[in-house]
């Protein structure tokens, strides 16, 4: 790729030129879907099982046919791609990170995602505004990046009867000494939040939240919050107590009586 300066590309037009705008700063392995791209990053476009797990537990016959899905923090649209392939009628991805938003648009263009739309802004702010209900809210890798995870679940439960979550959680607090316990009381809940302060904000490979601090939850607290706001039918799909960077859980939550 020949360039005269950063704002202009003078070589032959290609999707690879768009990819190279973020060379070395991709989290996802685009080589999964196009072998001409480098094999590096997380295999989210086909190998990652989480969209399929969401469809198995919260879809119909393992599919999302007819579903309007809200995706919180699509990052680089790898899961959006899978959600479309699983039959979603529409996918709306809300992304706060400006680089990740542009990368999602690059992937949308590159892979021809014609049922996915990406908006730039805060997920909680979107959920707090009046708007439609969704057949599913897909919340993968974002809950532990929230300053107020209780509020995120409350708002999500107000806009959907089905919530899919993958998140880190607190299991052995002494092991995670960088987390500071903070009492939380509100909405009839009496919990402990665990404060985490980011390092590396502003770096090209920072994929955390949009505040300097965030709060983690332990797993009983997550289940209690879901139940408090009506999503009490929960299934723990997978639990990794020894997951890198902290314990992690995949779970499906829905309102009782919802098919």
From TrEMBL:
Q: Do you know which InterPro entries this protein is assigned to?
A: Mo5U34_MeTrfas-like (IPR027555), SAM-dependent_MTases_sf (IPR029063)
User: SUPFAM superfamilies, alphabetically?
Assistant: S-adenosyl-L-methionine-dependent methyltransferases (SSF53335)
Pfam families under this entry? Methyltransf_9
Question: Known CDD domains for this protein?
Answer: AdoMet_MTases (cd02440)
Q: Which Gene3D superfamilies match?
A: Vaccinia Virus protein VP39 (3.40.50.150)
> What protein is this chain from?
tRNA U34 carboxymethyltransferase
- Species of origin reads Methylobacterium trifolii
Q: Which gene encodes it?
A: cmoB_2
């Amino acid at each position: 790729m020949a360039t005269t300066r950063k704002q202009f590309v003078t070589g032959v037009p290609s999707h690879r030129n768009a990819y190279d705008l973020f060379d070395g700063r991709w989290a996802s392995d685009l080589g999964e879907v196009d072998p001409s791209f480098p094999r590096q990053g997380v295999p989210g476009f086909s190998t990652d099982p989480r969209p399929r797990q969401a469809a198995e537990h919260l879809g119909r016959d393992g599919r999302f046919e007819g579903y309007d899905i809200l995706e919180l923090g699509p990052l680089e649209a790898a899961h959006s791609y899978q959600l479309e392939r699983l039959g979603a009628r529409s996918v709306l991805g809300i992304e706060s990170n400006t680089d990740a938003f542009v990368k999602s648009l690059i992937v949308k263009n590159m892979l021809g995602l014609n049922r996915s739309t990406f908006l730039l802004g805060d997920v909680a702010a979107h959920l707090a505004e009046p708007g439609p209900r969704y057949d599913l809210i897909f919340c993968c890798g974002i809950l532990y990046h929230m300053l107020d995870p209780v509020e995120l679940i409350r708002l999500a439960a107000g806009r959907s009867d089905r919530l899919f979550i993958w998140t880190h959680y607190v299991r052995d607090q002494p092991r995670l000494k960088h987390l500071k316990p903070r009492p939380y009381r509100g909405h009839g809940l009496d919990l402990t939040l665990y404060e985490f302060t980011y390092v590396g904000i502003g770096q090209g490979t920072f994929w955390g939240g949009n505040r300097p601090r965030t709060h983690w939850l332990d797993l009983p607290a997550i289940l209690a919050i879901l139940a408090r706001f009506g999503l009490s039918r929960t299934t723990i799909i997978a639990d990794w107590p020894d997951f890198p960077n902290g314990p992690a859980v995949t779970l499906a939550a829905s309102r009782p009586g919802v098919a």
